[in-house]
UniProtKB/TrEMBL annotation:
Organism this protein belongs to: Colletotrichum trifolii
Domain Xylanolytic transcriptional activator regulatory: 751-826
Protein name listed in UniProt: NEDD8-activating enzyme E1 regulatory subunit
Start-end of Basic and acidic residues biased regions: 551-561
Name of the gene encoding the protein in the UniProt record: nae1
Bias (Polar residues): 1-15
Taxonomy of the source species: Eukaryota, Fungi, Dikarya, Ascomycota, Pezizomycotina
Gene Ontology BP annotations: DNA-templated transcription; positive regulation of transcription from RNA polymerase II promoter by galactose
CDD domains to which the protein is assigned, alphabetical: fungal_TF_MHR (cd12148)
GO cellular component: nucleus
Length: 1127
C-alpha cells in the first residue's frame, strides 16, 4: 500500500445518498453500471402452478431495484394458495393472484413499477398481450406450463432476442434453465483474484522501462527507507534485466525458472508476485473464441460489441498483446513513486484504447459506437467471454449424463459431492405434468437418457418429486377439511394465535393430557438411583467420584486474575488449557473435559510431569487487549451510532454466520434501525455493539482483537442495574455475551452466570409462557419472544453440557412457550436460506441433551438400558432431521455451517454419554468382569471420536464460527484415543489411535488462524501424545529387563526427562506430586487397590502390569504404577 505523505490533501468525503445506502450490497457487487442496467430492465413473469416460486423470484429482483415488471397469471387466489405463498393472506381470497402479488411486491420497493394481466374479467390472450407491450428485457416462466404458451414464448424470444428463464420447484428441489436466442457476450469485471495480473513486465514499453531504470540505477546504495519503498513492479523489472543478462536475454518462462528467479531477491511483495506477473502476453481461450467466432448473419457484424471485437483483434494481430488494462495493484511504495507509476500505466491504457477506437471508426457501424464502451472493452479485454447456447438438447443431455455418472463414482469415494442430475431429470419430467407418478417420471427420464434409469438415486429423486408434488395440495386440503369439521364457525386466521388449551376449550373438550414438557429427573428414589447405590456400582462410582473437580473449602476462583498473573489467554477454568500451577478452580462434573484429563493422570501419574512444564507458546494477557467489566459504574451517556460501511459489513457477517443458530433478531427491523441511525436507547446500543463484536469475530481471523472494543462499548450500556430493567433487547444482548462472547474470550464461569441471569430476566418478561397474539403485529412480537426464549435455551444447553453441572430447570412443565413457527414473518429470515429450520431442530436436540445433562450430573454411570434409551433418542433425532440438514449436497454458507456444527455437536453428546464407562474402567483398575453393554459403550465412544475427527477434517471451513467449534469438538474427541493409548498401551489398535491423534494435531495446526484456542489445544494434545510415545519406548525397554534388581528400578525413577527437554530444575517425580498443581491430589483419592488375577486380555491390558508395586507410591494410588511409566 502506498504511503500517504502529510503534504497531500485528504480526499473529500461525502455521506452515501439514500439510494446508495439502499442498494449498497449490489453496488459493491456490480457497480453503478450494473445497477443502471438493472434499473432499466423490464421483466415479464408468466406465473403458473402454485405461483410461489415465481413470486419469490420476482421478489429477489424487486428488492435490488429492477425498473418494471409484469405478472401474467389467470389464477384466482384459493385457500390452497394461502398455505404456500407467503405474499397472500385470507384478504386476497377470490381476487386475481397476479393483482394481489403485484400490489404486495410494489410495497417492497416504491421505486419499481409493476402491472398485472389479465385485468378483471379479461380472458387471457397471451399472444395478444405480447404483441401490445414494449419488448421485455427478460422473460421468466414457472413450470408446469401449457405447451402452446411455451411455443409463443419461444417465438417471441427469437424475434426480440430476449432470454427465457424457466423456473421449477417441487418440495425442497428446484432448478432454473436459461434459454438464449443467440450468442451472448459478457464482461467479467470481477475476475478471479488468482488470475494473472497484466503488468507487461516481460515486454515493458519505453516509458515503463525508463522509469524502472531511473529508480534502480543505484539500488544497492539506497538508504533503508528508500530501499524498502521501491514498488515491486520496479524491483521485478530491474531483476528481470539482471536475469536476462545471464540467461541469453530470455526471461524466466517455466515454473522452475520463476522459482529460481524469485529466490534471488527477498523483497516480499516482489517475490509473491513473480508467478502471477512474469508471464508473456497470451491470448485467453475465451477471447480467442470471440476472435474466431463465425457469425450467423450480417446483422451481428454491425453491433457495437462485434465492431469493437474486430478492432481489438486487429490490435492484437499487430502488437501480439491485448490493450493494457491500466490497473495497478496496491503495493508498498512512496506515494510520489506510486502515482508516477500509476500514471504511466494509465497513459499506456489510454493510448491503446485510442488506437482501438481509431480502428473502430474505420469499420461499418463504427461511427455509432460509444467511446465508453471501447474503454470498458479494452480495460477488461482479457476477461470477456462468449456464451454460446447449446444445440441439440437431447444429445447434450446424454453427454452430460455420462459425465455426471462418472462423477458419482468419484463421489462414492468421497472425492466430490454427488451429482444433482437425477434431481434435475425428475423435475424436468414434471415440467408439464406436476401430478406424475414415480413410474411416469422414470418412463419420461428413460426416453431422455436411457442409460441413467437404472441408477438408485434417479429412482429416489423420482419418488421424492412425485410425493412432494402430489402430496402438497392434497395435504393442505385435507388439513383445511379437518379444521372446518372441528371449528365450523371459526376462520383459520383467528385460530393461529391460540394456544393448545384455548383450541381445546373451543371444542368444549376437557383437558386430560399430560404436560408436553419433558419432566426433570425425579427427586424420589428410582430404579436408576437405587442401582447407583448398590454395591455392584460402588467401586466404579468411587472411581468416577474422583474425577469430579470439587473445589476445596477455602478455594476461590477468579477468571480476571489473568490481568495480574501470567495465565495464557486461551486458557480458562473449564477447557483445562492452563497447565501452569493453578489451584483456583470451580466445580466441574465427571462429564467435563477435565474428567478425561484427570483419568489420564490416574492411569499415568507421570504424565503430570509432561504437563506442568511451561508451554513453549505462552502468551499471557499483556498481549491481549483489556476487557473491562464495569460492575456498578454509571452507564455511559447514550448517543446515536451512525451508519457506516464497516458497521454494515459486521452486521452482514453476524447475519451470515451467527443468526442461523440463534435467529432471535428480526433481521429486517434490525437493519432498518441501524440504517436510520436514530435510536440511542441503552438496550439498542448494547445489542448493536454485541452484533458488531460477534460479527467482527466471525468476519476476521483469531489474531484480530477489534471485537474487544465493541464488547467494552456494549458493557458501558449494561451496568449492574440493567438487570433490574428487563427489556427484550437487553436479554438478547446478554444472550450473545453469555452464550457466545464470554466463552470465546475464555470466561466460561462468567458466561454461565450472565446467561443464567438472562434466562431469569427472560422469565420476568414472561418469555417462557405463550402469549395470546391477536393481530399480525402481535404475531410478529410473539414470534420474536419464542425465538429469543429458545435461543437462550439452546445457548445454555450447548454451553453447560460439557461442564458436568445440572441444568437447574431450564426446561419443565411450567414452560409452555411454543417453538418458532414456519410461515410467520418469513421476511425476517430472507438472507438466511435455512430460515428457522436449524433452531427448530436444535430445540428438539437440546431437550434430549438437557435430560442427559441432568442424569449425568446425578451420576455419570447410568444403567445400560437408560444409556441406550438416551442414545436411541439421539439417533432417532438425527435420523429424522429434514433432508436439508442431513444432506452433504452443496448449499449456502449459513446452512452449511449450521448443519456441520449440528452434526459435530450430536456426535459429541453421544460420545459424552458413553465416555464415563471408558473413564471408569480406565481409572478403576482391575474389575471382576467387563459387561457386554460396557464393551459396546466403549466401542461406540471410540467410533464416535473417530467419526468426529474424519467429519471435521472434511467439513470445517476457514472462518471462526467453524474453526472455533471444530477445535472444541476435536479437543473433546482427542481424549478418547489418548485414554486408549495410555490405558491399553499394548493393544493392536494403538497405531489406529495414534493416527487419529496425528490427524487432530494437523487439523489444530491448520485451524490456528481460525480459533483462539487452536494453538494451545494442539500443544496440550501434543504433549500428552509425546509422553505416550516415550512411555511406550520406556515400557518396552523395561519389560526386556524386568527381572532386574528392584533397587535399580528405584534409582531409574529419579530420572525424569521432559519430552521437550524443559525439566524444571530440582523437581523430581515426588516433588511434582507435592505441587499444588492444576489437578490436586486432594481431589484424586482412588480407593483401595482392587484384587488381582483378572482376565482383561480382551482389552489389551497386560495382566502382569496390574499388580506391580515398586514402593514409590502408596497402595491408595492407582494400581497402575505411574512412576514406572514416567517419561
Amino acid at each position: 500500500m502506498a504511503d500517504i505523505t502529510a503534504t497531500q490533501a485528504p480526499p473529500s468525503l461525502s455521506a452515501p445518498s439514500e439510494k446508495e445506502k439502499k442498494y449498497d450490497r449490489q453496488l459493491r457487487l456490480w457497480a453503478a453500471r450494473g445497477q443502471a442496467a438493472l434499473e432499466s430492465a423490464n421483466v415479464l413473469l408468466l406465473n403458473n402452478g402454485s405461483g410461489t416460486v415465481g413470486a419469490e423470484t420476482l421478489k429477489n429482483l424487486v428488492l435490488p431495484g429492477i425498473g418494471r415488471f409484469t405478472i401474467v397469471d389467470a389464477a384466482v387466489v384459493s385457500e390452497a394458495d394461502l398455505g404456500v405463498n407467503f405474499f397472500l393472506d385470507e384478504a386476497a381470497l377470490g381476487k386475481s393472484r397476479a393483482q394481489s402479488c403485484t400490489e404486495l411486491l410494489l410495497e417492497l420497493n416504491p421505486e419499481v413499477q409493476g402491472e398485472w394481466y389479465p385485468h378483471n374479467s379479461e380472458k387471457l390472450d397471451f399472444t395478444h398481450f405480447l404483441e401490445t407491450r414494449d419488448p421485455f428485457t427478460i422473460v421468466l416462466y414457472t413450470l408446469p406450463l401449457q405447451s402452446d404458451h411455451l411455443s409463443v414464448l419461444e417465438s417471441y424470444s427469437q424475434k426480440h432476442k430476449t432470454p427465457l428463464i424457466a423456473i421449477h420447484s417441487v418440495g425442497f428441489y428446484s432448478y432454473f434453465k436459461t434459454r438464449l436466442p443467440g450468442v451472448y457476450p459478457i464482461v467479467d469485471t470481477h475476475p478471479d483474484p488468482t488470475a494473472i495480473t497484466d503488468l507487461r513486465l516481460v515486454q515493458p514499453w519505453e516509458e515503463l522501462a525508463a522509469f524502472a531504470a531511473e529508480m534502480t540505477c543505484d539500488i544497492d546504495n539506497l538508504d533503508g527507507h528508500e530501499h524498502g519503498h521501491i514498488p515491486f513492479v520496479v524491483i521485478l523489472l530491474h531483476y528481470l534485466e539482471v536475469w536476462k543478462a545471464t540467461h541469453s536475454g530470455t526471461p524466466p518462462i517455466t515454473y522452475s525458472e520463476k522459482v529460481a528467479f524469485r529466490g534471488e531477491e527477498n523483497f516480499e511483495e516482489a517475490a509473491a508476485a513473480v508467478l502471477k506477473t512474469i508471464s508473456p502476453p497470451a491470448l485467453p481461450a475465451a477471447v480467442k473464441q470471440i476472435f474466431e467466432y463465425k457469425h450467423a448473419g450480417e446483422n451481428e457484424l454491425y453491433s457495437s460489441f462485434w465492431v469493437i471485437a474486430a478492432a481489438v483483434r486487429e490490435f492484437y494481430e499487430k502488437h501480439q498483446s491485448l490493450p493494457v488494462p491500466g490497473g495497478l495493484p496496491d503495493m508498498k511504495a512512496q506515494s510520489g513513486a506510486y502515482v508516477k507509476l500509476q500514471n504511466i500505466y494509465k497513459a499506456k491504457s489510454r493510448r491503446d484504447a485510442a488506437e482501438v477506437l481509431d480502428l473502430v471508426r474505420q469499420k461499418p457501424g463504427g461511427e455509432k459506437v460509444d467511446p465508453s464502451d471501447v474503454d470498458l472493452f479494452c480495460k477488461n479485454a482479457a476477461f470477456i467471454k462468449l456464451i454460446v447456447p447449446a444445440e441439440g438438447d437431447l444429445d447434450q443431455l446424454q453427454v452430460v449424463a455420462e459425465r455426471e455418472l462418472a462423477n458419482d463414482d468419484l463421489a462414492r469415494e468421497g472425492i466430490m459431492p454427488p451429482s444433482l442430475l437425477p434431481v434435475y431429470l425428475a423435475l424436468y419430467a414434471t415440467s408439464h405434468n406436476p401430478m406424475a407418478s414415480p413410474e411416469e417420471i422414470l418412463s419420461s427420464i428413460q426416453r431422455l437418457v436411457p442409460s441413467i434409469t437404472k441408477s438408485e438415486r434417479v429412482s429416489q429423486a423420482a419418488a421424492e418429486v412425485s410425493r412432494a408434488g402430489a402430496a402438497l395440495s392434497q395435504s393442505l386440503e385435507e388439513c383445511r377439511s379437518i379444521l372446518k369439521r372441528l371449528y365450523p364457525d371459526q376462520e383459520v386466521q383467528s385460530l393461529l394465535p391460540l394456544s393448545r388449551q384455548e383450541l381445546l376449550s373451543l371444542l368444549g373438550r376437557p383437558l386430560h393430557d399430560t404436560p408436553i414438557a419433558l419432566p426433570s429427573p425425579p427427586t424420589n428414589p428410582s430404579p436408576l438411583s437405587q442401582e447407583l447405590e448398590s454395591p455392584a456400582c460402588s467401586k466404579s462410582e468411587q472411581g468416577l467420584s474422583g474425577l469430579e473437580l470439587m473445589p476445596g473449602r477455602d478455594t476461590e476462583w477468579d477468571e480476571e486474575r489473568r490481568g495480574r498473573d501470567p495465565i495464557p489467554i486461551e486458557a480458562d477454568d473449564v477447557n483445562a488449557l492452563s497447565l501452569s500451577v493453578d489451584r483456583q478452580s470451580s466445580y466441574l462434573g465427571a462429564s467435563s473435559i477435565k474428567a478425561a484429563l484427570m483419568c489420564l493422570l490416574k492411569v499415568c501419574p507421570g504424565l503430570r510431569h509432561s504437563l506442568i512444564t511451561p508451554l513453549q507458546s505462552v502468551e499471557v494477557t499483556q498481549s491481549f487487549p483489556t476487557v473491562r467489566f464495569r460492575g456498578t459504574a454509571p452507564p455511559k451517556d447514550t448517543q446515536r451510532i451512525p451508519w457506516s460501511w464497516k458497521g454494515q459489513t459486521l452486521i452482514d457477517a453476524y447475519f451470515k454466520r451467527i443468526h442461523v443458530f440463534v435467529p432471535m433478531l428480526d433481521e429486517a427491523a434490525f437493519r432498518a434501525d441501524y440504517l436510520e441511525g436514530q435510536r440511542f436507547d441503552a438496550p439498542w446500543l448494547a445489542l448493536l455493539n454485541m452484533v458488531f463484536a460477534m460479527g467482527s469475530i466471525v468476519a476476521m481471523k483469531s489474531d484480530d482483537y477489534n471485537h474487544i472494543n465493541y464488547y467494552n462499548r456494549a458493557m458501558e450500556h449494561l451496568p449492574i442495574d440493567a438487570f433490574g430493567n428487563s427489556h427484550i433487547e437487553t436479554v438478547q444482548a446478554l444472550a450473545m455475551i453469555g452464550g457466545y462472547y464470554l466463552h470465546y474470550i475464555n470466561r466460561p464461569n462468567m458466561a454461565n452466570a450472565v446467561l443464567g441471569a438472562a434466562i431469569r430476566m427472560a422469565s420476568a418478561l414472561g418469555l417462557h409462557r405463550e402469549s395470546l397474539a391477536k393481530g399480525v403485529s402481535d404475531m410478529a412480537v410473539a414470534e420474536t419472544r419464542r425465538r429469543t426464549w429458545w435461543s437462550l435455551f439452546c445457548l445454555d444447553t450447548w454451553a453447560t453440557t460439557t461442564m458436568g453441572r445440572p441444568s437447574f430447570g431450564r426446561w419443565g412443565p411450567a414452560i409452555n412457550i411454543k417453538p418458532p413457527e414456519f410461515g410467520v414473518n418469513q421476511g425476517r429470515d430472507s438472507a438466511q436460506h435455512a430460515g428457522i429450520l436449524p433452531l427448530i431442530e436444535n430445540i428438539k436436540f437440546c431437550k434430549i441433551a438437557t435430560q442427559i445433562q441432568d442424569l449425568l450430573a446425578i451420576s455419570p454411570l447410568l444403567r445400560a438400558e437408560d444409556r441406550c434409551n438416551l442414545d436411541d433418542q439421539l439417533l432417532t433425532w438425527y435420523g429424522n432431521l429434514p433432508w436439508l440438514l442431513r444432506t452433504t449436497d452443496p448449499c449456502a454458507e449459513p446452512l452449511y455451517i449450521a448443519r456441520c456444527i449440528m452434526k459435530w455437536r450430536y456426535q459429541n453428546l453421544r460420545m459424552l454419554l458413553h465416555r464415563p464407562v471408558l473413564l471408569s474402567l480406565a481409572s478403576s483398575g482391575p474389575l471382576p468382569q467387563v459387561a457386554e453393554p460396557d464393551v459396546a459403550a466403549i466401542e461406540t465412544c471410540r467410533d464416535l471420536a473417530r467419526q468426529t475427527v474424519e467429519d471435521i477434517s472434511r467439513e470445517w471451513t476457514r472462518n471462526q464460527m467453524s474453526g472455533w467449534n471444530a477445535v472444541w469438538f476435536l479437543y473433546q474427541a482427542a481424549m478418547i484415543p489418548l485414554v486408549g493409548i495410555f490405558w491399553q498401551w499394548n493393544s493392536p489398535r494403538v497405531p489406529e489411535w495414534r493416527q487419529q491423534i496425528e490427524t487432530i494435531l494437523d487439523l489444530l495446526e491448520a485451524m490456528e488462524e481460525w480459533s483462539l484456542a487452536a494453538r494451545r489445544s494442539r500443544e496440550v494434545v501434543w504433549r500428552m501424545y509425546e509422553a505416550s510415545r516415550q512411555r511406550s519406548m520406556r515400557t518396552k525397554s523395561h519389560l526386556a529387563g524386568v527381572a532386574g534388581d528392584q533397587a535399580l528400578l528405584l534409582a531409574e525413577t529419579g530420572l525424569h526427562m521432559s519430552p521437550i527437554g524443559l525439566e524444571p530444575e530440582g523437581m523430581g517425580m515426588m516433588g511434582i506430586l507435592d505441587q499444588q498443581g492444576l489437578w490436586d491430589l486432594d481431589g484424586m483419592y482412588w480407593g483401595p487397590s482392587p484384587d488381582p488375577a483378572v482376565d482383561f486380555s480382551s482389552y489389551g491390558v497386560n495382566d502382569s502390569m496390574m499388580n506391580l508395586d515398586y514402593g514409590i507410591m502408596s497402595s491408595q494410588v492407582a494400581a497402575m504404577d505411574g512412576s514406572f511409566y514416567a517419561p
